[in-house]
Amino acid sequence: MSKRLRLFxxxxxxxxxxxxxxxxxxxxxxxxxxxxxxxxxxxxxxWVSFRLLLPGAHTGVLPAMRKLYxxxxxxxxxxxxxxxxxxxxTPHWLDVVQVLLWAAVFVTAAMVLYELHGRRLPADNPxxxxxxxxxxxxVRRLPWLLREILEWTDALVQAIFAVTLIHxxxxxxxxxxxxxxxxxxxxxxxxxxxxxxxxxxxPLTGVGLPAFRTYRRGDIVVFKNPHYSQDRKSEVKTxxxxxxxMLTFTKVNLNVDDEGNIKADPLVKRVTGLxxxxxxxQDGILYSRREGQGHFAPVTADAxxxxxxxxxxxxxxxxxxxxxxxTAEQYRAMIDCENERNRLSWMQSRxxxxxxxxxxxxxxxxFGGNRTAQSGDSPPLxxxxxFEYELFSSNDALTLRLLQSPEGARWFGDFMTRWIQAVPGHxxxxxxxxxxxxxxxxxxxxDLYSDANFRLNVMIKLAVGGLxxxxxxLMEEKRTLAERNSDAMLRSLFSRAEMLNNYAFLxxxxxxxxxxxxxxxxxxxxxxxxxxxxxGDNRFNSLDMRHSYDNVxxxxxxxxxxxxxxxxxxxPQSVPARDILGSPVLRIWPFRRFGVLGGPHD
Length: 602
Fold this sequence. Notes:
Elements: H1 3-22, H2 34-53, H3 62-83, H4 92-115, H5 144-169, E1 171-175, E2 190-194, E3 220-223, H6 232-247, E4 267-273, E5 277-282, E6 285-290, E7 297-298, H7 315-318, H8 328-342, H9 346-367, H10 388-393, H11 395-404, H12 408-417, H13 425-428, H14 448-476, H15 481-485, H16 488-510, E8 512-515, E9 531-535, E10 547-555, E11 565-570, E12 575-576, E13 580-589, E14 595-596
Antiparallel strand pairs: 1-2, 2-13, 3-4, 3-13, 4-9, 5-6, 5-8, 6-7, 9-12, 10-11, 13-14
Helix pairs in contact: 1-2, 1-4, 2-3, 3-4, 5-6, 9-12, 9-14, 11-12, 11-14, 14-16
């Protein structure tokens, strides 16, 4: 054995022994298996290696030695994962040490295999028992069938290990699960994700290769879904499921939640916000600002990939889309609602609200609801009944309740006018510029999003007030329910209510509040260093970093104590660079759309 080969063997075995020692743990869980697993493979490899080093050694052990050095890095990697699959984590320093030792084993084992190649190791110590009469070495062969089975098994296992390493550090196969990235990706597209530029990491650790690129706005990335638990058990399950997913060419996905549903993890989205930025989205326009900027400016590049109106796409692509969120008519109605909201006059709205209050007070007195209130009387409408859909759909019953309640008129007056206190006096006095052209001080709440939601709140209140007043008038006239339902004015008011309800349903997918939110004192906050904000291109059909997975009944505005409520899942968050797994570089399925994927949109 050459000195060079001896050196590589000693380094590899020493690194393997130290790796095994650092795998030792005294806990009664799966991590306990890491030490014996690493120790056995290291000890057997060492025993076979030293047989070749002994005087009089023969080359009969070479096949076994080659196989052991082929498997040693893979078995130690399994032990590495098992060590970290227990209930408790491992210190960062231990992760670093074991990663370095594993890397030493991997490199030196490769060098040993290179040196063990038949043409580089002279067979100068054959066992005399294996010599034929002509002096050639006689090789003992296994039965044909057993040899075939072992060779195929060996090839399969080595392929699994090779695929695992490729998956961990180089590329990953990913199947597009939703239509959040239309037109770039369609459901069930299969793409190759390049992981190396992102800084591939060893499983269940924060240790890995250094990232040699940063991300720009417009880059498409694959990343861990922060909405799911990132505890150790979940990471182990995700790791195993991704290996199986890749080995079966995306046919088997074991990454399911507790109910058996396929997890939306990892996610593929587009980078739309960068470190050092504060973002906001209003009426489908993304705005950003950096420290030192006093105002938000539109991100013009975002319009290049944001898809809002799928109904306007070409017939070819529309045929492949499973769900078009809005028809062309619904899209136009949404735009009309936004335009009307932006033209809202505070002065006219105040006049209209106060008129409704006077009319309802008179109807309340004539209806007989002015009896003396009792101390045990509850508020006429509860928190949940301020849900905008409830205010519209149950308007008839709610109106009757207010008319019969001694507090009904007072509550109606507060509901219709409390918002006025939040509007600066000079805006109530006359006309003003539309929100997008207004100075920050003229925006209720100080920004476009807050101002727009406040305006929507007022529009819904005026629609509710109009319905209640008209319903009360018809009730006073003793109209039947059928007659009230056929009333032309009431039908017109309900048509307007439907428009506002539809917009409230789209609100959190169309808009986003200032993110990160300002501190309580008004000081702006920005996306931290090495974190990014992602959204899907198909904005109406993308549950992305704008949203949580839970809907809560929330006020449209915090500036009105009796604000209308709507169901909201808005909860923006950024994603650390360490959770970005890579970037899609190649679409491999369907074959008709096979091709290299484009780079970022600048």
